[in-house]
Amino acid sequence: MRRRRVSDSLDPKTSSSPAIETRVDNSGLIEARVGNLVEDLKGTSFDAQRDATFELRLLAKQSMENRIVIANCGAISLLVDLLRSTDKGVQENAVTALLNLSINVENKTAITAANAIEPLIQVLETGSTEAKENSAATLFSLSVIEDNKVRIGRSGAIGPLVDLLGNGTPRGRKDAATALFSLSIFMRTDVQ
């Protein structure tokens, strides 16, 4: 077996990078898959929307690269629209996908720009237990950006968060408390 010298690793003729090649191949596959899922989000079939939102939810949970691809393929505004779905499964998956996407800082801005705050509050008020919990967690995630704290607070989130804090599951109470705490520490920079 030949020992590889440091200079060999710098020579493109003697070094190959299967990890990089695989990453490029996987990225293309993910982008194509996400493109198909985005098309399913646009349809009217609850089954197709439920399956697509579920798969996007899982993909967004897996990696930062997936979160970026999903956002770049235009899924965020469609997921925000699906927060108003009458199908509870679609709604749960959409809010959870947005929660997972919000881990990326640029996606926080994109989610807010897609006018997600009011629909997230609606889910917090009327959604299933899981949807309420994930809505509270998403509001917390978005509140990391200072400007969003004001928007969230002014949009009526405090009441539903307090309700979840008092009446939710242990996880729901934790998510509500975390969101309320984040909203309460808004620092005004214009006060001296």
Q: Which percent range fits the helix content?
A: over 70%
Rg over CA atoms, rounded to whole Å, is 20 Å
What is the structural class?
mainly alpha
Distance between the termini: 69 Å
Q: Can you name the CATH architecture?
A: Alpha Horseshoe
Q: Give the tally of β-strands.
A: 0
- Let me know the largest β-sheet: none
Strand content is: under 5%
Q: List segments where confidence is low: pLDDT < 50 over at least 5 consecutive residues.
A: 1-22, 187-192
Q: What CATH first level would be assigned?
A: Mainly Alpha
Shape: globular
The overall pLDDT average reads 87
Features:
single chain, U-box domain-containing protein 4, disordered C terminus, Armadillo, repeat, mainly alpha, ARM-type_fold, Leucine-rich Repeat Variant
Secondary-structure topology with pairs:
Blueprint: H1 6-10, H2 18-42, H3 46-62, H4 64-72, H5 75-82, H6 88-101, H7 105-113, H8 117-126, H9 129-142, H10 146-154, H11 158-167, H12 170-184
Helix pairs in contact: 2-3, 2-4, 2-5, 3-4, 3-6, 5-6, 6-9, 8-9, 9-12, 11-12
